[in-house]
Fold:
Amino acid sequence: MEISEELTQKHKALLYPTVRVRTGSAGGSGTIIYSNLKPGSEDEYETYVLTNEHVVDNNIKVEKQWNNLLQCDLKKDVLTECDVEVFSFEYQSWESGYGAHKADIVCYDKNMDLALLKVKAIKPFSHVARLFPKGEHKKRLRMFQNLYAVGCGMGHPPLATQGNLTGFSDIIDNYPYWLSSAATIYGNSGGAVFLADTYEFIGIPSRIAVNIGGFSADAITHLSYFIPIISVYKFFDDQVFTFIYDPSYTSEQCAEMRKKRREQRERMMAVEMSKEEVEKE
Structure:
């Protein structure tokens, strides 16, 4: 049987960028959203995976550490590396194994439930999700549009379900969530929601509706809440990883901007603490 070009493109654009994320006792899904040459290098690549914070939460600890500049204990993130499992396929769909890669948690936002991982491998990854353009959501997105939700549901290798875009108005923990009828289940968290016609990434499956009755809680898998692309862009900007979607920035420039921001915060804290000491005297 001859395989259509459309089916081939669906595999490349939707299935292959999806990875499984493991943190020892827990895990979920993730999506490769960036894999490009490191600035100044001819053969070393930087690759980033987007996922939910709750997928990697077991590897995030906050501890007190001494700060020499401020001469006091400050809370500091202690982040343990994760495993990112990238799957291989034969005959397009037949899973033949996976390669496990170590990855660092480079930033996260617990309230937004987003985390960004940097894969330690320096090789390029061929299949990268295509992000829906920033600022075009109200122009182009409508209810009834067809979607695919892709993720490692129940720890399974990547799989896809189909549904519709069904809502834009939900607010959960003060953040917007969009609603999809593409079935998702535990393990899909951190994966991707794609437009069915353009294969563009528009969000991350994060929650499912649950009906609690008596002593049981039943998952309503066709009511899937996902973090919308507008929040993803806000996360990149807040964390100064703008280079992921804007080629006018480099990863080095963003790293320098993050460093300056941290130093500025420390200086401001030092000034505030000095004022408090003066007031006490």
Remarks:
- The chain has a mean pLDDT of 91.
- The chain is about 20% helix and 45% strand.
